[in-house]
Structure formats: structure tokens, C-alpha cells
């Protein structure tokens, strides 16, 4: 039995993970579930999966009624509150596998704890790698943890790489380029001058994927692809010049690896996160994920294009931040989290997300060689800066 901790269980990736786990009760057991604020759903999941532990990360919530409700289900379920409890769960000796499915830099400490304690880490929380990619990869190497990417593109690349890839890196594996695909989001064909009018509802309605709100907005600005470029560079030990972003509106090819002999290997599938989640859970084997196979007769066409820098300024900002090194990516990520939540709260417009991000990236001093506490401090400074800009825009 694999004991799994699902961090961010009440979110889109968390629920998809539990859907796959429920199909294989003989192999996976839920050891722990975490939620930030959705106690109603957490109680429902606790009843269904009977974990040993529950974590509620929002410290402002009164959890007395919730605790009573859980006790009426099973008195032996432990309930913990606060973000530190995530770190304890991620490093608990009973846990084999940690699904890191929290949204934003809030997932960093628990991803790092899982990496440091040698777990099998299923990483959906790309922001961990964006903020502290070097430290996280170092922790994986030191502890011997197994890091499996869940982000669909990175999971696809992982599937297209040779099995001995990590031993010798990109050149020895005969790889010419990694081709990271992205749909371009819901506004790919809108006139650029209309983008100022985009509403949160429109931005959250992704044409192919059903995801949490933050990543949906990031997909619409293509900040998501920018974060994924950084994620890929850390995961696969490559530079930005060894990677190319390809627009592919149908989201059928989830990414590709181009080899020096002219071969291109692609991973195809439905836009359904249960496929990469199942691959992460069962790797190197494969298990049923409940996903219908592709019907090629139904796919009218697969098209490709180059992303337009003017339409997607956030993509360029992310690439610049990664190339600058130091704390630049952590700053950009923090500013973006603040800008996206302000956009979702109707405080700033859609195109002002990129403006806030650019100002933060250009205004905060880039710091090099920071440890994890230093990066977290820099994240906090960037949030403060972004919030002050957002306040000015609101007036
Ligand atoms: P959701 O918004 O659907 O879910 C987020 C989860 O994190 C919820 O369980 C939420 O709890 C919890 N959470 C929110 N804020 C905090 C916090 N401050 N501290 C601890 N937990 C918190 O997000 P997604 O599932 O869409 O995304 C999760 C991660 O996976 C992101 O990093 C995203 O980039 C990545 N990802 C997602 C994909 C997708 O298809 N959705 C695809 C590829 C990557 P609650 O709801 O109880 O408040
Ligand atoms: Mg992705």
C-alpha cells in the first residue's frame, strides 16, 4: 500500500488525484488531506477516504464545529491547523507519496519538506520550482527523493525523454530542443485592444481545461507558460535557449522532445489531468485513470503557431526573470499572485496584471545566493510592492 498525502485536496488537482486513487483502493491509501478554507468539502472527503490526518491551513477559521463533525465520522482522525502542519505531514514517516497540489508560493514549504525527507513528490505546485527551483532540486538530489512532474506539459516531456536522461543531461541524450506546448488561452484570437475589457469570468473559462481560478487567469495571460518555462529549466536542467514555446490551441499534444536525428517524440492525450496524475502515482508502471482514449477520427486538426509577445507580455517577463537568475523569478511570481487576486476581485483590469508584474520585476533589487528564508522575505517584499501599485491603480 502506498500512503499518500494530498496537499490541496479540495482543489482541482486534489480532487482529480482522489478520483484516480479511488479507482485503485488496493494500491493507494490516503494518509492525509489538506484544505485551506473549504471545510465542507474536506469533511465530505474525510468521510469518503478516512485519512489518518486532516490539515486546515487557514488559521483564521474556527474549526470547533468541523472537529466535532469529523469526530462523529471517526474519532481517530487527527486534525491539525496552520501552515506548519503541512510541513509535518509532508515529512511524516508514514507517508510514501506527497501530492503537492496547493496553489501558489504557499505550497513551497511543504514541497521542500517532502523533497528533503526523500518522499515520492508528485509536483503540481509549479510555483515551488519558480520561487526556489535550485534549492528544491538540490534537496531532491541530496535526499534521493523521486520528483515526478504533474504539470501536464512536464509530465509529457518526462514521458518523451529517454529513461537514463537524468544521468547525462540534454546533450548526452541527443536532444535538440524541448517543445513546450500551450493553448494560448481564451483570448488568443481577440483583438489586442479589446483585452482591457476582459472580465474574471471570461478569463476563468478556459477553452480546453477545467482548472482552479489562479492558473486559469495565468493561462489567459500566458504567465502560466512563463512559469512553466522556468519549471522545465529547473526540472530538466536546461537553459531557455534549449526550449521553445509552441502554441497549440487544441491541447491534444501536451509537449514534445525534438532529437538531433530529426525525430520528434510527442505525448498526446485528452486534456484531463487524471492522465499525468495517474502516471505520477504509478510510475514507472501505468494504471487506469478513467480517461477515454483519443479518437483520432474526431480530431479535425492539430495546429501550431508562435506566441505573440505583444499579446502575452507575461510570457516574456517570466523568461527574462529566469535568465536574470537570483530572486527575480520569486519576485515575479509573488507580484503575479497579488495581481491575479486583485484582478479576480475586480480591483485591476486584465492587462494591468502584466503592468504590476513588470513594475515589480524592474523595481526590486535582484538578490543572489539567497537561502529559503531569504527567498521568502523577497517574496513578501514583492507582494508588498505589488499591493502598493494595485492600491494606486484602484484610485
Ligand atoms: P485550486 O485553486 O483548484 O486549488 C488550490 C488548493 O490549494 C485548494 O485545496 C485550496 O484550499 C488550497 N489553498 C489555497 N490557498 C492556500 C494557502 N494559502 N495555503 C494552503 N493551501 C491553500 O488550484 P489547482 O488545483 O488548479 O492548482 C493547484 C496547483 O497545481 C497550482 O500550483 C497550479 O499551477 C498547478 N496545476 C494545476 C493544473 C490544473 O489543471 N488545475 C494543471 C497543472 C498545474 P481551499 O479550496 O480549501 O481553500
Ligand atoms: Mg501546464
TrEMBL record:
GO biological process annotation, one example: isopentenyl diphosphate biosynthetic process, methylerythritol 4-phosphate pathway involved in terpenoid biosynthetic process
Cited Pfam families: DXP_redisom_C (PF08436), DXP_reductoisom (PF02670), DXPR_C (PF13288)
This protein's pathway: Isoprenoid biosynthesis; isopentenyl diphosphate biosynthesis via DXP pathway; isopentenyl diphosphate from 1-deoxy-D-xylulose 5-phosphate: step 1/6
GO MF annotation list: 1-deoxy-D-xylulose-5-phosphate reductoisomerase activity; manganese ion binding; NADPH binding
Catalysed reactions listed for this entry: 2-C-methyl-D-erythritol 4-phosphate + NADP(+) = 1-deoxy-D-xylulose 5-phosphate + NADPH + H(+)
InterPro entries cross-referenced by the UniProt entry: DXP_reductoisomerase, DXP_reductoisomerase_C, DXP_reductoisomerase_N, DXPR_C, DXPR_C_sf, NAD(P)-bd_dom_sf
Chain positions recorded as 1-deoxy-D-xylulose 5-phosphate binding sites: 126, 152-153, 183, 206, 219, 224-225, 228
Domain DXP reductoisomerase C-terminal span(s) in chain numbering: 268-384
Gene3D superfamilies found in the cross-reference section: 1.10.1740.10, NAD(P)-binding Rossmann-like Domain
Cofactor: Mg(2+); Mn(2+)
EC number, UniProt record: 1.1.1.267
Binding-site residues for NADPH, renumbered to this chain: 10-13, 38, 125, 127, 212
Class of this enzyme: oxidoreductase
Matching NCBIfam families: Dxr, PRK05447.1-1, PRK12464.1
Role, per record: Catalyzes the NADPH-dependent rearrangement and reduction of 1-deoxy-D-xylulose-5-phosphate (DXP) to 2-C-methyl-D-erythritol 4-phosphate (MEP).
Family that this chain belongs to: Belongs to the DXR family.
Protein name per the record: 1-deoxy-D-xylulose 5-phosphate reductoisomerase
Gene: ispC
